[in-house]
Structures are given as structure tokens and as C-alpha cells.
């Protein structure tokens, strides 16, 4: 490679010029999406859409750096789901705060590989500070933990630590050394990552015992007692109870105080999957909904949900610092040096996480706290919770619609009943077809969920720009499409 070719790859002036142009393009796209003037989604069946991407790998440049922003603006942005559009209501992924996205660019540029302290000193210190802040919000004085790439990984890490507590020799000797079956008790509404973790740990998905929920989707404390006692009768060992604070299906929050007190009296590890709901702790109004969370041994908290960070940024938090070291064990002389004192070793994050090359995750969240403070982020959470309460009220007041339950967070489930009585199967099919039609026409993006054999339309109001007029428009479209489907 010649010096000219090398300099072309790292051309600082071209980077500056293209960067300015790219930010201008993204700012324009942001304005269009927030105002609802951009396309929500240009739907194509995936096999058809893929044809446009089936190209030969370029042997030589086909794009000049000065053309980059135009190419992105014309070819990439229009083909994506517009996350900042007020009609984007399907899932718990946030429309990220613009300045958090800028901080994410800094993290990508600096490319800190946070295996050990020396490979990411500032990144490590930022993460430790944020972990202390989040632990304090939970109510722990000496909490510890790490950031992970998503809540599924955080849940797995917490359950590995719980398993080590009851069966410390598994890491070296394997699962066959455990006498008796290990079990995980969790809500029937828990996230699938709990079952997946059990499969990954070699316990088998059947090790996860679903505990019944009440009419509001919350774990029944009496059903938990019965499930635990049944395990004792069968000589099975409950390695963890997993409660949920903001379940994916309905946003429901389990009775954390009662569950925590029961686990304390029975000596059971309590993990709380608060990936969605933990951010409510920032709000003095909604924080009490999570009363009892401090009784947990471990907690999962996703910042890419209600803290409005770019995906993915999750935290796995432990009430006791020692517990944060129990998930993993490793010996790598190229990273971990026995001659290092314990103080240095405590700053080597990869000893406590699945990832070795872990990107700088915390800068985005630190920037948000610096720019807006706890109160500013709390107001954003309170705003979307209020929008959801208002939408629930609108659903109940609109003829032909049924609300599953009053929302506890910013997730709402409802369905269109149609203008004539329908059997359960036909009613379920109607909801699925309505959702699909809304998506394919590029009108609204919602999700659907099946609960007790019934299909419900599901909205997660993450976008603070989704106002009452958009909610009313959604119900009008649902009614119109539903009636079309019923008469076709």
C-alpha cells in the first residue's frame, strides 16, 4: 500500500466534510420523522426486497466519500423503519435521543475494547460510575455490575451467578456433578430469554417452571409458594426465582415486595428482570410501582428502552459485589496478570461479562444524564406513561374496542371486536390481519400478543411525539380495515 492510498483511508479532511454532510442529512430525516412527514416503512416482502441487495462484492470503489451522505439518504434511510415516527408503536426499542447517538459515534470512533482497564480506562470509569448510580436508584448501598449487549445477556449473566451460588462446582466439573434437578421459578408472562438461558446453561428449558399470573398479568405469590413447595416435594433445587418489572407482553409489574420477602425467608436467589420497567425508578411518581426491587439479588435494566439510548445498552446489577464475580471464571495470561494487585483486577470488566472485546457502552447514558439530569429523563418517562393512560381511556370510550387491562407502564393491549359477534378463532384472525394490513400499507407499526388463547393488538408508546390525534387516527384505521376485512 502506498502512502497516498493509506492517507486516503484515514483522510481527516474528508472525514470532517462527510461527517458534517451526514449530520445534516440525519437532522433532516429526524425532523421529517418527528413531524410524521417521513414514510413510516416502505413495506416489501423480504424475498422481493432482498433482490435489491444481491450484488457482487465490489473489487474497486463504487462510491466516493463525498457521495456517502447522499447514498445513505437515498438508499438506506428510506428502506428502514422510521423509529422517530409517531406511528411507530410496536416494540420497546426507543427512538434514541439525538445527542446519545452522537455520543455513540464517539464510542465507535474511539473503539475502546474494554477487556481490561488498560484497554479502555475512561470507558471503564464511566461504566463504574453509571453502575453506582443505577444501583443507588434501586436502593442498594454497595451494588455492583456491568453493562451488557442486551437484556437477554444480562439475564443469562444473573442466572449464571445464581447457579454458582447453589452449585459452585458446575463451572469446572459440569452439570452432571449436581445431585438433583435445578429449577427456575418465573412468571408465566416472563421474557423468553429466561427459558433460553436455561437451555444455554444445560438445564433444559423444562427446568423453567411457569408460575400463574393474576388478571393483571402479575405473578401470583400464592402460586409461587405452591410451585416452590412442589419442587421441595420432588427433591428439586430452586436456583432462582425470576420476577418481572414491566413484562414484555403487557408491561405488568409483579408484586416485588411480596416476592422478595418470600425469597428472603426461603433463602432463594431473586432475580428481577426489570429490563423495561426499571427506568421508572427515576420518576418519583412511578418509582413506587417497583417497591421491593431492593430485595433482589440481581436486576436487569435496559437503557435502550425507557432511557432512550441507542441499542443495545443493558445493565446486570448485583446487590452484593461478590455476586458479580460468580457468573464466569477464566484464565487468560494475555489479559489477566496474577502479579496485578486486587485493585487493578477489580477494574478488569471482562472478568464479569460474557464479552471480551466489549465496546464503550456508557458514554451515551452519561451524556444524557449530563445534559438532562435525572429529572429531565424522568419527565420523558412520565410523559409516555401519561400518553398510554390517555390512549387506554380512548380505547374504552370508543365503540367496538376492548381493553385487556389498564396499563401499568407504557404498554397497552386491546382488540377490535368488529360490528358483529365473532368466534374466538375468527376474532384472533381479525387482529392479526388488521396488524398486517396496517404495516403493509405503511400506516402504523404495532405488534400483537397471544394471552390465554386470545390475540390482542399491542402498542408500546415509546415515542413522546405520539399524541392524541395519532391515537385517534390509529383507532379509525383499525376500525376501517377491520370492517373491510369482515365484509370482504
Structure description:
The protein is of the alpha/beta class. The chain has 15 helices and eleven strands. Strand 10 (447-451) and strand 11 form a beta hairpin.
**Poorly predicted residue ranges:** none
SSE string: HHHHHHEHHEHEHEHEEEHHEEHEEH
The SS-based structural class is alpha/beta
Radius of gyration from the CA trace? 24 Å
Number of helices: 15
Provide mean pLDDT, rounded. 94
Overall form = globular
Relative strand content: 5-15%
> Roughly what percent helix?
40-55%
Gap between N and C termini: 65 Å
The strand line-up of the biggest sheet is 1-7-6-5-4-2-3
Major sheet description: 7 strands, mixed
Total strand segments: 11
Features:
488 residues, alpha/beta, seven-stranded mixed beta sheet, four-stranded antiparallel beta sheet, 15 helices, 12% strand
Amino acid at each position: 500500500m502506498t502512502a497516498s492510498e493509506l492517507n486516503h483511508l484515514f483522510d481527516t479532511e474528508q472525514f470532517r466534510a462527510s461527517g458534517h454532510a451526514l449530520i445534516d442529512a440525519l437532522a433532516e430525516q429526524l425532523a421529517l420523522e418527528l413531524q410524521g412527514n417521513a414514510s413510516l416503512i416502505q413495506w416489501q416482502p423480504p424475498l422481493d426486497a432482498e433482490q435489491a441487495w444481491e450484488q457482487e462484492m465490489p473489487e474497486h470503489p463504487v462510491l466516493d466519500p463525498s457521495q456517502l451522505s447522499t447514498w445513505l439518504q437515498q438508499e438506506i434511510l428510506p428502506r428502514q423503519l422510521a423509529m422517530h415516527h409517531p406511528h411507530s408503536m410496536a416494540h420497546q426499542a426507543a427512538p434514541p435521543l439525538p445527542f446519545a447517538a452522537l455520543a455513540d459515534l464517539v464510542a465507535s470512533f474511539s473503539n475502546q475494547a474494554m477487556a481490561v482497564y488498560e484497554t479502555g480506562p475512561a470507558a471503564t470509569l464511566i461504566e463504574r460510575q453509571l453502575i453506582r448510580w443505577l444501583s443507588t436508584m434501586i436502593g442498594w448501598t454497595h451494588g455492583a455490575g456491568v453493562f451488557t449487549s442486551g437484556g437477554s445477556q444480562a439475564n443469562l449473566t444473573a442466572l449464571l451467578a445464581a447457579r454458582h451460588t447453589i452449585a459452585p462446582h458446575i463451572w469446572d466439573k459440569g452439570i452432571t456433578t449436581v445431585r438433583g434437578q435445578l429449577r427456575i421459578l418465573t412468571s408465566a408472562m416472563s421474557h423468553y430469554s429466561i427459558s433460553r438461558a436455561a437451555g444455554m446453561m444445560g438445564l433444559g428449558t423444562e427446568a423453567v417452571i411457569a408460575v400463574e399470573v393474576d388478571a393483571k398479568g402479575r405473578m401470583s405469590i400464592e402460586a409461587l409458594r405452591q410451585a416452590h413447595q412442589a419442587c421441595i416435594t420432588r427433591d428439586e433445587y430452586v436456583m432462582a426465582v425470576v420476577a418481572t418489572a414491566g413484562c414484555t407482553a403487557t408491561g405488568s409489574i409483579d408484586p416485588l415486595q411480596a416476592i422478595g420477602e418470600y425469597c428472603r425467608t426461603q433463602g432463594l436467589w431473586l432475580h428481577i428482570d426489570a429490563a423495561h420497567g426499571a427506568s421508572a425508578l427515576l420518576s418519583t411518581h412511578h418509582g413506587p410501582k417497583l417497591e421491593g426491587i431492593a430485595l433482589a439479588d440481581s436486576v436487569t435494566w435496559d437503557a435502550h428502552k425507557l432511557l432512550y439510548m441507542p441499542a443495545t445498552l443493558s445493565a446486570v446489577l448485583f446487590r452484593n459485589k461478590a455476586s458479580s464475580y460468580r457468573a464466569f471464571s477464566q484464565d487468560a495470561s494475555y489479559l489477566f496478570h496474577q502479579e496485578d494487585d486486587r485493585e487493578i483486577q477489580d477494574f478488569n470488566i471482562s472478568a464479569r461479562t460474557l464479552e471480551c472485546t466489549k465496546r464503550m457502552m456508557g458514554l451515551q447514558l452519561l451524556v444524557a444524564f449530563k445534559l438532562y439530569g435525572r429529572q429531565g429523563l424522568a419527565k420523558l418517562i412520565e410523559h409516555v406513561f401519561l400518553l398510554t393512560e390517555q390512549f387506554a381511556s380512548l380505547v374504552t370510550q370508543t365503540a367496538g374496542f376492548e381493553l385487556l387491562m389498564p396499563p401499568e407502564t407504557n404498554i397497552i393491549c386491546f382488540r377490535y371486536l368488529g360490528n358483529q359477534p365473532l368466534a374466538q378463532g375468527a376474532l384472533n384472525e381479525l387482529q392479526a390481519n388488521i396488524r398486517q394490513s396496517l404495516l403493509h400499507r405503511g400506516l402504523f407499526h404495532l405488534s400483537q400478543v397471544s394471552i390465554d388463547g386470545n390475540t390482542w393488538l399491542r402498542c408500546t408508546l415509546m415515542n413522546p411525539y405520539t399524541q392524541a390525534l395519532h391515537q385517534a387516527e390509529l383507532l379509525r384505521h383499525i376500525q376501517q380495515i377491520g370492517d373491510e376485512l369482515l365484509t370482504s
